[in-house]
Amino acid sequence: MAITISVAMVVLTHDAYDIKVKRYHYKEKENEFRVYTRKNKYLVDGSVVSIYYRYQDQEEERDDLVALGYVFIDDKDSDVQIKMFKMIDERLVRNILSSNKSCRKYHVKPNVEFSRISEIILHESEASDNVC
Length: 132
Known about the structure:
Elements: H1 2-17, E1 19-27, E2 32-38, E3 48-57, E4 60-73, E5 79-87, H2 90-94, E6 106-109, H3 114-131
């Protein structure tokens, strides 16, 4: 019984935290990146998500946060669209342009660290104070 529960927990957790990017779209004039993934119960329309780049670093698999994005869900579309609005590591984001296979290295997590949101709000607040 305990083994069955453990396996179910691993499957559910894996589904929630390893949402792979299927494809991308880049608008050069606007420098806008959008990624697409399969529908997932953890991706909610209008929510903010984290986008990670996974790579091998000295025999250790590592995830680096590359961007934050808004989720757009269209009931008629089989995929979820995520528009990147805050680039954390633009160099790693641009790696997606290297080949169609590069999408496999990107994945989405339905959570965002509070420190990242605080940083964005603080930065925008400072920018608006400097305008006046």
